[in-house]
Amino acid sequence: MSQPSGELLDHLFRQQAGRMVARLTHVLGPSHVTLAEETVQEALLRALQTWPQDGVPGNPAGWLFRVAHNLAIDSVRRTQSFGQKTDAIVAAITQSAQTRETPELDDQIRDDELRMIFMCGHPALSRDGSVALSLKTVGGFSVKEIARAFLADESAIAQRIVRTKKLIRERKLTLDLPNGPELTERLDAVLDVIYFMFNEGYAAHEGVDLIRQDLCMEALRLGRLVAGARAFDLPRVHALVALMALQAARLPARVDDAGDLILLDDQDRTRWDERLIFLGFQHFDRSMAGAEVTEYHVQAAIAATHARAADASSVDWRTILELYDQLLEMTASPIVALNRAVAVAKVHGPAAGLDALETISRDPKLQHYHLMLAARGQLLAELGRPEDAAKAFAAALERGCTDPERRFLLRRLAQCTH
Amino acid sequence: MHKYMLLLYDVPSAWAKLSPDEMQKAIEKYMAWGQKPFVVRGVRLANDVGRVIRSTGGPVRTTDGPYSETKEILGGYYLIEAETYDDAVKRTLDHPHLEYQGTIEVRQTWE
Q1: Using one digit for the tens of pLDDT, what is the confidence trace for A342-360?
Q2: Which residue positions in chain B have pLDDT lower than 50?
Q3: Cα A94 to Cα A29, A231, B35, distances in angstroms
Q4: Where are the domains of chain A?
Q5: Rounded CA gap, B108 and B111, in Å?
Q6: Contact indicator for A73, A79 with CB cutoff of 8 Å
Q7: Does the distance separating the beta carbons of A140 and B15 come in below 8 Å?
Q8: C-alpha span between A229 and A107 (Å, rounded)
C-alpha cells in the first residue's frame, strides 16, 4: 500500500490543493473560501507530518481528499459560525467525502473548479483581484508565489485577495453559473482573466524564474478546463487555448542558459515543446468551426504561422503581416501596431518597416516604449546606420525594462559601436 | 559506533505560510533524509498537546503539555549512528528541518 520513498508527481500538492479548495468551497459556500483554504493547508501539513515516517500512501490524492474532509467536519463543528446549518453542512461534507474514485468524481471536481473560476471572473471583481484569487484558490499558489510571479509586493497581493473575498461576501456571489446572455458575458470576462494571467507569465521578465512559466501553464490549464466543458466548447475558447499552447511551446527556447533573451529568429526550434504545439493545433482546428473571428483567433493564427515554419528563414511573414493588419482593425492597440511594423520590415524590407514605425511612434503611449525604440534600433542597424541605431538602443535603455532586456539592449548597443 | 538521538523542535505556525508546492518539496526532502544509511529509526510525535506528569515533592500531578502556536514544540526524534558528537552534528547539518526554521538537539545515548 505504501511506498517509503515514493516519488510524488510534480506539483501534485498544488493541483490537489486547488481541487480541494474548489470542492470544499462548493460544499461550505463561497463566503467560507478562507475556511476551505485553511482546511486544505492543514491537510497538507498532516501529510508532511506523517508521510516521511509512514511512507507515501498508495493514493496520495485520495488520502489528502479524505483528510481534508475530516478536518473540514471538525472545524465546521468547532467554529460554530454555521449556526443552525451546522448539521446540514456536516452531512454534505460527509457525503462529499464518500464519493468514490470514479469518473463521476473527476467530473464533479472539474465542475467545482469551473464554478470557482466563473465566480472569480465575476464582473463585480477587479481583473487583478480575479487573477490573484483564481491563482490562490483553484491554482494552489501561495500569496508569496503570486507576488513573485507578478513582481509585486506580498502584502499588496494579500490585500488584493482579502478585498476580493470581501466583495464576494458583500455581493453574495454564488457558485451558480448565470444563464443566457449573462453567461456569455461572464465567459468573456473569464477568458479575459485567463488571457491576462497568461500574458503576465509570458512577459519577458527575469526569465529564469520558473514561477512565471507556472503562471502560463496554469492559465493554459484553466483554459483547457473551460474548453472541456460542453457549454463552453466554443470556437473563441479553443482559439484562446490554441494561442496559449502555441506561445507557451516557445518558452523553453526563449532564454539561454545564462537567462538572456533569445529573439524568435534566433531560437533553437528543436527546443520548442512539441506536445504543446500539437495541443495548440488541435484547439486551433476546433477554433475554426463557425464564422466567428475573435482577437484570440488572429493571435492564434499568428502563433500557428510561426509554429509551422521549419526554421526562421521559412516563416511566412506575408501571412503574418495580413494577420496583423486584421488584428489592428480589431483592436487599434499600439503594441499590435508595433508588431505589425516588424512584420512589414520582414516582408518589404527595413526601410518600409521604419516608415511603419514612424507613423505609430507619434502615439503618446508608444513614444517612450522601450520595445518600440529597440525595434527602431534594429531596423536602423539593418539599414547600415549604426550611429542612429546606437542612439535608439541607448534611448531604449533609459526606459524601464527588465534585466534580460537590458542585457540584450547592451549587447546590441555594443555591436553598433564596434 | 555510538548512537545519538536527534530531537526535532519546530514552531507549528511556521508551516502555515508554505505554499502547497513548498509543502510537497519539504516532504520529499524529509523522506530522502530519513533514507540515509546511518538513520536507525525515526519517530514522528502525534500532533497534540501531550501530557506532562510532575512530582515536585507533593502529590504527582498530570497536566496537558505546554502548547502554543508560537512556541517551539518537540515534533519527533531520530536515532542515528555516529562515531563522535562532531560526526553526529555533521551528519545532521543537512537535515531539511534546519531549512524550515526548526531546531535540532543532538544527544548521545548510553549503551
Answers
A1: 999 999 999 999 999 888 8
A2: none
A3: 15, 30, 37
A4: 1-101, 103-221, 234-304
A5: 9
A6: no
A7: no
A8: 10
Report in angstroms the alpha-carbon separations of A333 from A202, A260, A365, A368: 18, 28, 10, 15
Nearest chain A Cα distance for residue B86, angstroms: 26
Considering only the beta carbons, identify the residue of B15, B21, B42 that sits closest to A13.
B21
CA distance B7 to B9: 7
Compute the distance between CA of residue B27 and CA of residue A52 in angstroms, rounded to an integer. 6
Q: Which of residues 145-164 of A touch B (CB under 8 A)?
A: 145
CA distances from B38 to B4, B5, B68, B76 (A): 10, 12, 33, 17
Domain containing B70: what range? 2-108
Q: Which long-range contacts (CB under 8 A, 24 or more apart) does A153-162 make?
A: A157/A132, A160/A126, A160/A128, A160/A129, A160/A132, A161/A129, A161/A132, A161/A133, A161/A136
Phi and psi of B110, rounded to 5°?
-80, 140
CATH of the domain at B101: 3.30.70.1060
Q: What pTM value is reported for the model?
A: 0.83
Per-residue pLDDT tens over the stretch A230-287: 889 999 999 999 999 999 999 888 877 777 777 788 888 888 999 999 999 999 999 9
Nearest CA-CA distance, residue B56 and chain A, Å: 34
Alpha carbons A1 and A5: distance in angstroms, whole number: 12
Which of B20, B27, B35 is closest, CB to CB, to A51?
B27
Report pLDDT for A78. Answer: 87
Contact B23 A4 (CB under 8 A): no
First CA to last CA distance, chain A: 67
Query: Can you list the alpha helix ranges (DSSP code H) found in A203-316?
Result: 210-228, 235-248, 274-287, 295-308
CB atoms within 10 A of CB A218: 25
Average pLDDT for chain A: 88
Residue in chain B closest to A49 (alpha carbons) equals: B44
* Pick from B27, B32, B43: CB nearest A48: B27
A4, A8, A50: residue with CB nearest B24: A8
